[in-house]
Amino acid sequence: MSHKQLKLVTIGGGSSYTPELIEGYIKRKDELPIKEIWLVDIKAGQEKLEIVGAMAKRMVKAAGLDWEIHLTLDRREALKDADFVSTQFRVGLLNARIKDERIPGSYGMLGQETNGAGGIFKAFRTVPVILDIVADMKELCPNAWLINFTNPSGMITEAIKTYGKWDKVIGLCNVPVNAMMKEPELINTTLDHLTYRFAGIDHFHWHRVFDDTGREVTMDIINAIQKGDAALPKNIFNVNFFPEQLEYMRLLPCAYHRYYYREEEMLNHSLEEFAGIGTRAQQVKKIEHELFELYKDPKLDYKPKQLSERGGAYYSDAACEAMTSIYNDKKTHMVVSTLNNGTVPDLPADHVVEVSAQIGAAGAIPFTFGPFQPAERGWLQLMKNMELCTVEAAVTGNYGLALQAFTMNPMIKSGSTAKRILDELLIAHKNFLPQFTDKIKQLEKDGVTVKDDIARTLI
Amino acid sequence: MSHKQLKLVTIGGGSSYTPELIEGYIKRKDELPIKEIWLVDIKAGQEKLEIVGAMAKRMVKAAGLDWEIHLTLDRREALKDADFVSTQFRVGLLNARIKDERIPGSYGMLGQETNGAGGIFKAFRTVPVILDIVADMKELCPNAWLINFTNPSGMITEAIKTYGKWDKVIGLCNVPVNAMMKEPELINTTLDHLTYRFAGIDHFHWHRVFDDTGREVTMDIINAIQKGDAALPKNIFNVNFFPEQLEYMRLLPCAYHRYYYREEEMLNHSLEEFAGIGTRAQQVKKIEHELFELYKDPKLDYKPKQLSERGGAYYSDAACEAMTSIYNDKKTHMVVSTLNNGTVPDLPADHVVEVSAQIGAAGAIPFTFGPFQPAERGWLQLMKNMELCTVEAAVTGNYGLALQAFTMNPMIKSGSTAKRILDELLIAHKNFLPQFTDKIKQLEKDGVTVKDDIARTLI
Amino acid sequence: MSHKQLKLVTIGGGSSYTPELIEGYIKRKDELPIKEIWLVDIKAGQEKLEIVGAMAKRMVKAAGLDWEIHLTLDRREALKDADFVSTQFRVGLLNARIKDERIPGSYGMLGQETNGAGGIFKAFRTVPVILDIVADMKELCPNAWLINFTNPSGMITEAIKTYGKWDKVIGLCNVPVNAMMKEPELINTTLDHLTYRFAGIDHFHWHRVFDDTGREVTMDIINAIQKGDAALPKNIFNVNFFPEQLEYMRLLPCAYHRYYYREEEMLNHSLEEFAGIGTRAQQVKKIEHELFELYKDPKLDYKPKQLSERGGAYYSDAACEAMTSIYNDKKTHMVVSTLNNGTVPDLPADHVVEVSAQIGAAGAIPFTFGPFQPAERGWLQLMKNMELCTVEAAVTGNYGLALQAFTMNPMIKSGSTAKRILDELLIAHKNFLPQFTDKIKQLEKDGVTVKDDIARTLI
Amino acid sequence: MSHKQLKLVTIGGGSSYTPELIEGYIKRKDELPIKEIWLVDIKAGQEKLEIVGAMAKRMVKAAGLDWEIHLTLDRREALKDADFVSTQFRVGLLNARIKDERIPGSYGMLGQETNGAGGIFKAFRTVPVILDIVADMKELCPNAWLINFTNPSGMITEAIKTYGKWDKVIGLCNVPVNAMMKEPELINTTLDHLTYRFAGIDHFHWHRVFDDTGREVTMDIINAIQKGDAALPKNIFNVNFFPEQLEYMRLLPCAYHRYYYREEEMLNHSLEEFAGIGTRAQQVKKIEHELFELYKDPKLDYKPKQLSERGGAYYSDAACEAMTSIYNDKKTHMVVSTLNNGTVPDLPADHVVEVSAQIGAAGAIPFTFGPFQPAERGWLQLMKNMELCTVEAAVTGNYGLALQAFTMNPMIKSGSTAKRILDELLIAHKNFLPQFTDKIKQLEKDGVTVKDDIARTLI
Q1: Tell me, which fold does domain A6-170+283-305 have in CATH?
Q2: In whole angstroms, what is the distance from residue D39 CA to residue B194 CA?
Q3: Could you tell me the pTM of the whole model?
Q4: Closest residue of C to B330, CA-based?
Q5: Which residue in B132, B264, C70, D406 has the most C-beta neighbors within 10 A?
């Protein structure tokens, strides 16, 4: 990076996670010569933007820094000449996630933010918006880096690369960050004594770990995890993997593999919450409300510890670290969504994977992982192709292809109920799915309505 | 083939399908210079062998042929100097299939002969036996062709190629035969006016069809099928595919795709039968009993029409056709399980696929199919890798790998119930699973028993 | 094909090979309901068109057929509503080939029609023309089949598929035809008793052969060929392959492999001809002159035997056979240039290979060949990539890429002489290389001229 | 690495390069807790071993270190419990290289140490010895790392991985080291401000370079090199690449690419030396003699600068750096021969490539490079497959396969002269080619002798 003063832009700046982002910048104040931070949001997010923006200003001031904090609803003004753009927005806000969770749940299927029917619809809503942002960036800041941590992060990065034809993008996820923060202490060491090798796709990857004598410690960590603390993000219900399976695999699954390796228990837990305390998004809505109440406190000028208890913790910090590594050519090891290029030879070379990479001025250079054994290979190939169908359907609005994605998805039992869920989700999210307009009109004409009362009232 | 008189051997000769095989030979008497037909079975099948063997002799005699029919329990005597060996045996007989169906069914999961948990266990029981047969063939008839139609036909052929290292094998299935027999009339033509292109793996393939002007008629057949007759084998419950999905795919799925594309309905139907008239094997047991009663009739010297109503119809005829095509270098189009070699570039070149091939003296030479679109590609890759895990676990008896196969299989909801089903099936089939002996002993020590009463009493 | 009366068009209709084409049609008169045959040529070929066209009319008349023979310089009129278009033109006529041969020869390198520098320049001249033809076809006969036997046939077919985006094309070559006509008698059998399996790219393929008992007879043919008759086209100098090499390969190389496996001897022979009786094109020019003298005879109404002695014999007949097989859905085995799609897994799936295929109404459906051993694999990968560079340079006119193709080509010793040959060829063919206009102007400005007197006078 | 005192072993310890190795250890004395250094050689190298060993002891003493230096002809004693084994031996000593250079040269072909016929024979001689060493290591020091810089380094590493089944090996080459030492100053920067990305195979790789702002500076370096200093090892004749070609490629070729991109000039230079001052090995023999005369000086206790002028400079230092990086888990960027695993997706995943990698306790973890453009892809695929043929022939002694390797090699013009060269080299090296014994005996019986007088007298 040329040693200029930086303009940093965050789309979805009104997010409750913004204090973590600001804290991340402040931690790296000696590495990043920041001039301006632009927090962008949409009309519907204006109130939150103002609350969290005011707090951001307090944090910067408390740190004794002269950074400009701009709050704006004008995305194009913000993007103009930006150096780094990060994205953490949620199309349709938490209400959309509630619908993603409750509509499948109302039919006994998994409702989850990034897996199953909910994950597919989150992609359907987000892809058109991210492609708009990329189009703006081509015009307004063609040399900027796009650091995406909007979920489903892998599919969004895929859309940016494949349909947006934008190469300077790095997709982030906090799941590997969590693993690398929590696992070392399970085997009584620290991260700097270990070599981590991750490979797979977002929310569906595995990793191996080696210590500084070259010994593989993957099984040591597996054994420690199975005994107790699972190094899970806060939003994932803990059920142990089957030890015989891990013993055979000799790979550490990611936290989300629980949905695939213990489908029964994860589904049951999700349906219990659906019928009881409410789905995760309903819970988060409360937590978020409390956070914003905190943020309103004009004396609060640091990130409150309650934020770290959210499932998305460390995402924003990872984004700051990616920017710092690129700017300073730090050649840091990070786990990112980027072009495969052979890193995982079992997947197409020209699509996005989530892998260990060196992050520096030249972007993300992955570490080769090599072929998987048949079980992991088969899973990965299914999941990546499901992603490709989802992203293409998100771009084209093809209903048959959406149905293909639903049919392939292991969290969705195919058949008439699955098709009903697809149809209800289309109707429920109609305001955010311009690509599916014709189909949605036809469904409405056919009288399809949303069964779940809570979801229906949020349309 | 050298123009010698032929010795044909069928392992599992006591099968109720043997009359179709004999009829198939008689139909081709001018093409196959048969000298001896050896029907081999095991002690437990001796009574059936004698009944169906006597009938085979009557059929041959009625056709005015001087072929020798040998009935034997001595497999090695039969294999000595054989020219063609066909396999149609069922390890553990229909009782094993009943257990494969009822144990998953007793926990609300699909119990089916070749899909889901049942299909995996059918492979677990059959692989050790087929590898024994191959070992005998290497010694006793090293130049013979092995025509396998023992199910799960694709996995068994995989085991023969990969672990048996036996190249002269052709795996057969009646699903494509059914399609090619019934579809042409749906579009008012005949098979000889069409070009069929099948690709995939056994019980999981798709096809395209072209007429003799070069026009693709795949969608015409799809439309006709969706209107009515689905060209299904008798053992598959009919539920239509979603038209929007097929419209997108522009490929004809195979009959068994119903289990994957309409999982909900197929499962419900199977559970209804489980709770009601009994699973398919229970029904078949009755049908088979009736068939053998018919076969006992010393006046019956032709294949009774009741046999054609079985799900396995046309398998034996396909075997005869394969032998005739090889012997006479006929270069016939057949759909067979054989080495991939690039035919389906989405799958490993060195494993078995089920594809359109030319069958002649040089064996099966597949017609290149080319890459699939992402949805079909992802499915195929999952399923083929699930097969590879299953076959390897069948050879090694590795429990962790068996669990991997269960976890991957889309017909099995992963979790503690799935693991319970795996454990019960191990115990239920303990007499036929020497490779899993240690694990089974441990399960018995742990007190695992089979819950379903009917299944338990059949152990 | 719809059973309509056919309009057949041949671009380059004035070729001396046209009588073979007409003979081919006449032989198949019961299979092809021909109404019109259009022979198209350019102004420079008008005289030859008239001579050979008149003879074609005599041949058709002598056969008692009422087919219309149209001779025209108006390609678009000819293409209108055509059913089959065949291409046998030579951009720049034989003089261009003389330059292709003499310019490399004048620097001690191989000058050959389809190999080395000459083959690359034949592609450079032909690709722009064939893409024009395809553009016309899209407009005027979008349902026609294009049967290409213009050399270098594989690269021209590649250009048609990859840059012309035209799928209904079949590329032909007479080298496999020659092999299949001459080899069977070497082992005392006939073609109908054999199964041929060819794979590779045009003028660079190998084959295996099996008899009707399934025994591989590849080595038998190799041994017979090495003893004597090499089943070569007339234009290829015969030098034996090294027996130890073939013994290891256990594959039959194609006739052109001599250039690669016996580079020294083939080069020496070519340089002897260059210095002595003249290069092959110079010889052919005389033969062709004699042929046209014969054709002028108003009594000649059949293909004279002298034509069969040309190197290009059987090309035209193969074209007729391809048309007949498509029209009648004959499902004939032919060796054609077509999309790889996995047939040769060592090469990219989306490019053209030359392989055994079934030719019928649905076009060419290749027979899977499978992976090669390392030596053949390496050669093939080099040569196919050399083709890809050549075709792309032929489309874009990029000089650096042309230099890459020259550098890779095993018949060209890289360095300043090779670059000089490239530059001289550009100048020599300047009238037929619009894509390289700027570079040629610059070379002329730099004073580059053609050294060889004969070649220079032909510019 | 466990923090124990290290035992380092060098096979070929009597090499003139040993002082560089010792200097490399001394430079890293704070990073490597060395206890013992074992220099192993064979009887024929004993004198040199004693000279250079004495000097090594002086160097260590001068550095004030207490390391033990052991000189031995007993390889097994040396290997016992070794931590790192490095190999720098030359089977047949420089005389063998003279034969490798002069025999092809005597027929007008390239004689070079690692390219063409000479490179193939260097592999033929070395592979059996390295596989013996690996067999010893499996028994005597199964946890040691093998650092190979015996040439042809890529093929030797391939043999170690594929036939030796030894995974803890790193193959080194000084060509990338040279590039990284000399190129940065050409663009007025230093290595630590650049990111290098190398990919290919040993002596046949390309690289791209990026600066610390992320800008690609590959073309800047190309332009600087073409102007003057080519950053070449001392043993490579300098002829510039064609600028138009590099402009198209936008990749930096390696120094050895001259042999392939400027074949004519490199051959001419080599033949001039052959006819004049003698081949490179003849020159090196003199240089080496002078070096050993220097080494005899009992006052010399540092690496003389004359050694740095050899073509193999930096090899030994790279070996020390690899050991240090592994031992200290330094995660250094180095360019090494290691398993491909997808790094270069154009080559098989299960074979060796030479690529940028991170070197640490877990070994070499390559940085993914991605697919090449067609020209580089085709070259690489040819060369890697030529390597695979060579290594297999080196293991099996198959003459037909040796002929295949010769035929494929772009530095060898195929034909009867090439075969003659192959035969003479077999005879010339008969004492070091046990795998070819039968063929050599037959050649001798057939009266084949070595034509070149100098080469013949060295047998």
Answers
A1: Rossmann fold (3.40.50)
A2: 75
A3: 0.96
A4: C212
A5: D406
